[in-house]
Amino acid sequence: MAKAPMRVAVTGAAGQIGYSLLFRIANGDMLGKDQPVILQLLEIPDEKAQKALKGVMMEIDDCAFPLLAGMSAHSDPMTAFKDIDVALLVGARPRGPGMERKDLLEANAQIFTVQGKALDAVASRNVKVLVVGNPANTNAYIAMKSAPNLPAKNFTAMLRLDHNRALSQIAAKTGKPVASIEKLCVWGNHSPTMYADYRFATIDGQSVKDMINDAAWNKDTFLPTVGKRGGAIIEARGLSSAASAANAAIDHVHDWVLGTNGKWTTMGIPSDGSYDIPEGTIFGFPVTTENGEYKIISGLAIDEFSRERINVTLNELLEEREGVKHLVG
Ligand SMILES: NC(=O)c1ccc[n+]([C@@H]2O[C@H](COP(=O)([O-])OP(=O)(O)OC[C@H]3O[C@@H](n4cnc5c(N)ncnc54)[C@H](O)[C@@H]3O)[C@@H](O)[C@H]2O)c1
Ligand SMILES: O=C(O)C[C@H](O)C(=O)O
After folding, report:
1. 327: pLDDT confidence band, cut at 50, 70 and 90?
2. How far is the CA of 100 from the centre of ligand 2 (A)?
3. Closest ligand (CA of 45)
4. N or C of the chain: less Cβ packing under 10 Å?
């Protein structure tokens, strides 16, 4: 029997990331090749944005996706989020050259109080929320706090792009395929302070740390390359990453819904107090997923260097949280 369609809301649907994301969702890349979807697309109530959204929807129509069971355009989150199973909160201002992600805090924070409240009011009680719009961790925190009637665990932030960037750097360094790398993770904030950690990673059962055996490369090349990759792309393209961000969003939700079969991935999730990260902080953790639930990998040894790095990214998040205190009550 055919599966019932899942309702997926995407905000900022006429933006750069939206343009790389919607077609792949409708093609079954995110929820599975046997899972029909209904797209509920939100853009700002602005004539130009709504017109651009209509244009994107015309193109989606023209793909005649067999899994697309419906599609609607919205300018109000209260209708866009009605009964949704998945929310991809992309719509927010991106940073330009010379800006840091926290510079976006003021500009974007308000969006996530409004959208958190709308999710609280009208989304499925099991809605899975992924915040992509920057600063993603703090925006996810704001949305979570603005939706007190939804389980906090439903709110996540995207660190998968950082995870994928780290995978690709390690593949290049070791000369091994990306698919052979396991047990990699990225701790903390989606910002240059994030801590990409390959101490536990393996390739064909062998320790990646031993294979690389170069602490200076880790500190001086790997961590800055992964941490500053978003900025490097803005510098090169004049625009922030879009197709790779959309790809990471697809990976994140795919794995959350369909499971990782015991493999590690990274998700920004509300801390349960693990690794001394204060409860409720939206933090990148190593997780596995099964039956639509994620689980933090527990019991990992945190050495002095790692604790320092984790504290730096945690402190930045706590500062960001302080900056939006007035919005979350
Ligand atoms: N977490 C990550 O890894 C990651 C990666 C790349 C980009 N981003 C972030 O994703 C966001 C979107 O990037 P983009 O390149 O698609 O930007 P963009 O400017 O091309 O598109 C953003 C779209 O969002 C819309 N929008 C703004 N406010 C909205 C609201 N309240 N409701 C609905 N739609 C709204 C805008 O009209 C625009 O069409 C940015 O904040 C960017 O920094 C995050
Ligand atoms: O860095 C940015 O501002 C965009 C995005 O978060 C990225 O990591 O590419």
Report:
1. confident
2. 9
3. 1
4. N
